[in-house]
């Protein structure tokens, strides 16, 4: 695989909310462990019969050592689809295995449990950097309320444009407007 791989993330919205309430970890944060070149990945032997799942321990952009249960499927030469299933803070043992050798991060550790994940994984035979790609581009789902989605779908259809393009334009207008207001407020 080459640099510049585009990762398309997905997850169940209800599961993401439940995970955030239970573990204090948003899937948007959990997905950033794939930016950690020192992340360690192993197969999830608990779910081998139903689908190919992976368990990755790595540091998020915020510096939290996090264990993520996920799937990984290459969909094209330069694209992969990842489904985040669950995420929690690393246990002390998982931290030691991640920090084996010359690698180390320091942060408080909170023990948690999750039915989609074991209480602890053995990463001693895991593969470091398995899903890391320098320059990877991430895209992830944005969940809109039904009324908002219906409104923008109708607008996109009226204008004969893709929904994604219309939403990007609306968000860009909001950014420009907010920046203009902030600029006026500082003068």
3D architecture notes:
The structure is a single chain. This protein has 187 residues and is α/β, with parallel strands linked by helices. The protein is 32% helix and 23% strand. The chain is built from five helices and seven strands, in the order βααββββαββαα. A seven-stranded mixed beta sheet has the order 6-2-3-4-5-1-7.
Quick tags:
seven-stranded mixed beta sheet, 2 domains, alpha/beta, about 30% helix, about 190 residues, 5 helices
Topology, pairings included?
Elements: E1 6-10, H1 13-23, H2 27-30, E2 40-43, E3 54-59, E4 65-76, E5 79-89, H3 92-98, E6 127-128, E7 137-139, H4 146-159, H5 163-186
Parallel strand pairs: 1-5, 1-7
Antiparallel strand pairs: 2-3, 2-6, 3-4, 4-5
Q: Which structural class fits the helix and strand makeup?
A: alpha/beta
Over all CA atoms, what is the radius of gyration? 19 Å
List the secondary-structure elements in sequence, H or E.
Answer: EHHEEEEHEEHH
CATH architecture descriptor text of the largest domain: Roll
CATH H level, superfamily name of the largest domain: Ribonuclease toxin, BrnT, of type II toxin-antitoxin system
SS summary, helix count: 5
Uncertain regions spanning at least 5 consecutive residues: 104-115
Our measurement of the CA-to-CA distance between the termini, rounded to an integer number of angstroms, reads 50 Å
List the strand order in the largest sheet. 6-2-3-4-5-1-7
- Helical fraction equals 25-40%
């Amino acid at each position: 695989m080459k640099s510049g791989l585009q990762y398309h993330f997905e997850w169940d919205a209800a599961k993401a909310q439940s995970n955030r309430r239970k573990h204090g970890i948003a899937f948007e944060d959990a997905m950033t462990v794939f930016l950690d070149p020192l992340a360690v990945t192993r197969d999830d032997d608990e779910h081998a019969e139903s689908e190919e799942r992976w368990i990755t321990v790595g540091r998020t952009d915020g510096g939290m050592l996090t264990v993520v249960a996920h799937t990984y499927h290459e969909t094209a030469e330069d694209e992969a689809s990842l489904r985040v299933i669950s995420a929690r803070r690393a246990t002390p043992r998982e931290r030691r295995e991640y920090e084996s050798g010359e690698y180390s991060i320091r942060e408080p550790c909170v023990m948690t449990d999750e039915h989609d994940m074991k209480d602890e994984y053995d990463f001693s035979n895991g593969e470091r950097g398995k899903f890391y790609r320098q320059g990877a581009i991430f895209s992830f789902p944005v969940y809109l309320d039904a009324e908002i989605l219906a409104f923008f779908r109708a607008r996109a259809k009226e204008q004969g444009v893709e929904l994604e393009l219309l939403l990007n334009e609306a968000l860009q207008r909001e950014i420009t407007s907010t920046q203009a207001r902030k600029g006026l407020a500082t003068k």
